[in-house]
Amino acid sequence: MPKENNGSRPDSLSAGATASDEAYKVGPGRPPKEYQFKPGVSGNPKGAKRKAPPIAVDLKVVLERALDNKVQLKQGDRARTVSMAVAGIEQLVAQYAKGDHRARRDLFALADKLGVDLLASQTKTIEEALAANHEAILEAYVHRQYDKVWQRPPVLAPAELLDDDTDDQKGS
Predict the structure, then answer these.
(1) Contact at 8 Å (CB) between 28 and 22?
(2) Which of 98, 99, 118 is nearest to 108 (CA)?
(3) Where do the domains of the chain lie?
(4) What pLDDT was estimated at residue 90?
(5) Distance linking the first and last C-alpha atoms of the chain
(6) Which pLDDT belongs to residue 33?
(7) Is the dihedral of CA 105, 110, 112, 117 positive or negative?
């Protein structure tokens, strides 16, 4: 008597189908075998579209070339030839000297990025102006301010000055 096939297991393998083919169930995310991609064949034969090369590298080269261009500056009677970079930095410093707050911000940012100490020439002058008595005044001020922020631990008496007669205190 033949067994009934309910679709869960193959009855025999002689019908030309393998066990894996009949166990495969078609459903969501499981297309029929004839519509699946064949091995070695891409689902997108034309491939992904190529990305445009980054423009930042090209802009860097263009900026470097533009900053290397020469320009003539006239200062009074004489003219001198400098690069655009030098002319731009000199103009930035001139605007800073006139009191332009945007130029000050840009100059400080540029000096910080390049590691330029803007106060290097004035540091020696400040050190010379600060006399020894001024240093003492400043040290005393810092000392007073430090005590307001941080409390010193209490000073304890030496052990020989402490009263160790605890028996006398208990008896009274």
Answers:
(1) no
(2) 118
(3) 70-118, 119-150
(4) 92
(5) 113
(6) 87
(7) negative
